[in-house]
Protein 1
Amino acid sequence: MRKERVLAMAKKDFERYNGDLVYRFLHDAVSDVFAQMLKADMQALNEGKHRDISLAAKWCPTIDSAYDKSLLICESIAK
């Protein structure tokens, strides 16, 4: 029953993403910000600039978290 509920939430988000242009814009914008910040953090880490690392990794949703299951945002960030 739990898997069905998670699947229903994902389906609902997918339909909203495809049907609501404002929601799609916001979803994509948030995904882009996380992706850019994580990329910059990786570059700073590789260069040894530890003070330049943001908190993006701390606040970025993790795969299979409740937040990701309801918004499917991790896939967008990974793109």
Note: The chain has a mean pLDDT of 91.
Protein 2
Amino acid sequence: MNIRVAALYCFTRFDDPAAIKAPLAKLCCAQGVKGTLLLAQEGINGTIAGSDEGIDAVLAHIRALPGCADMDVKESRAETPPFYRMKVRLKREIVTMGEPEIDPRATGHYVAATDWNALIADPDTVLIDTRNDYEVAVGTFAGAIDPRTPSFRDFPAWFRAQRERLLKPNAKVAMFCTGGIRCEKATAFLKAEGVEDVYHLKGGILAYLEQVRAEESRWQGECFVFDQRVAIGHGLEPGSHTLCYGCRRPVSEADRQSSLYVEGVSCPACHGERDATQRAGYAERHRQVKIAEVRGQGHVGARPLENP
């Protein structure tokens, strides 16, 4: 696995994110690094992939930005390129919650991956998965509450509606997400709502799968990731899920046995959401992707996954 994948984020203060964008994009392209990086006044977030030298150069550049010296980075390896191109984008938020008054740096208590099992085994702990519904369907921790939210911006309304049911006397709230960024904002949100006993998994599920042995794990299934690997398992090894390029949802081995699954076109979840014209367009796009793969080229119409 020669391709190095780096998932990174840092909540900090960028007074002028636009001034950061061009030099960062130029460096990534010069180093042959691909992926997506999001910039906002609250910091930086994204996943990139490339050679060891290229990733080193980009990470060094980012860590030299204000407040990014101790930036959290989770790394893994891939056999094939997980991204087709490089994008550096300006956003209002690096992870969208829609609560502009929240200070994402006012987080709850970090819990190391090696200490996570003890926390969530406590009967007074309320364990909440802060990810989107299609991510939870791929895998989650045993006993975790699934908010069934299609987007992270739906999380605040869900919590406010469920608060009285969830927060029993002496309850501790433990939350987790893929790499830790949504947990940081979710714990900051709960603290702003007056909940103090809040914890989150440092480094997210990725850190847990990397550091906790499978025989000791409380994780069930695979972990959805926002790149062409689609899902990973313990040891950050590639998982069994693929991606439906009609709806961008993960597709399990069982889903691929369905008559409603057509590679590159539709899956059981979206077959009824698309008409014949749309499916024909997806089929043509898939054909062009396959031609590009045979030629060893990146298909220009292929778009990377993004963390909503």
Note: Residues 126 and 167 are 8 Å apart (CA to CA).
